[in-house]
Amino acid sequence: MQNQLALSGERIVEKIYPQLFHHVGMIRGEYLVREISQNILLKSCQQFVKDYLDTICHLYPDEEVWYRFSELTNAEANSLDGTKEYFDERHPLFGYRGTRRLLACPDEFQAESHVVTEVYQTNPNLSVIFPFVNDAGHVNDAGQLKQAIRVLRQHGFTGKVGTMIELPSAYFDLDRILETGISKIVVGMNDLTSFVFATVRNSQWHDMESPIMLEMLRQMQDKARTKKIDFAVAGYLNASFMQRMNQMDIKCIIHYSSIPEIFNLEIDHPYHLKRVKEESKKIQRSNL
User: What is the DSSP string of 65-111?
Assistant: First the structure.
């Protein structure tokens, strides 16, 4: 089974191991803005993101390229040049992350929507994913995903839309989420496992292969398959988990930086993600 590739701003110049990866299943927007430490409100940041997406779409002209809207923690967003909306929240897992921030900061949402819409005009293989979604929304209640899709469409984006399932609330609202017109479901294994077991990554309770998590995945997979919606899992995965998922006929979105560990293959930019994280955290600490 071919899996999918996740990028975090790595400057690739050709398709990455096409025998292993069918297409680019995710570009994490937050790592593009964190790399240059600029908010998407700044024109220079918009151009930076636009150029990167254009490059990747051209490298994969006959395959889908999925861009995930920025999922910044408050500390990350507050440390960016050009940020105008500041939220005083300390816990990195909670609060105004992902789609919550997009809806709370309409200027940022508009700017990022403008970027993807402009790239889409010349790259119809570009699709987008909404992260950290609470719910779809009920008949008389415009929930987060419905609101986000409506705003995106109002800005002129007509391509495919997908959503992350990272919160238990989204898992419980999956039936309605599948009726919003989305084309892809991506389960964020790290966050979902953390919220299900009330724990942090790398703790003894953070078990992505527990019977509980596997049963949740089976249920979501079955529902997505019934609606003919693509289904995949993402996160910092290892080889055994990837094999387990593939045996269940579930595709994995593998981070570029994880290729050496999982496949024992070389990559041209092994330290890019680590460097961006370290530099970003230095800036965050200096702002405390």
Answer: EEEEPP---HHHHHTSBT---------TTSSS-HHHHHHH-HHHHHH
- Distance, in Å, from the CA atom of 4 to the CA atom of 251, rounded to the nearest integer, reads 7
Q: CA 66 from chain center: how many Å? A: 9
Both tokens assigned to 134: 């609470």
Per-residue model confidence as pLDDT tens for the chain (288 residues): 899 999 999 999 999 999 999 999 999 999 999 999 999 999 999 999 999 999 999 999 999 999 999 999 999 999 999 999 998 887 777 889 999 999 999 999 999 999 999 999 999 999 999 999 999 976 556 689 999 999 999 999 999 999 999 999 999 999 999 999 999 999 999 999 999 999 988 899 999 999 999 999 999 999 999 999 999 999 999 999 999 999 999 999 999 999 999 999 999 999 999 999 999 999 988 877
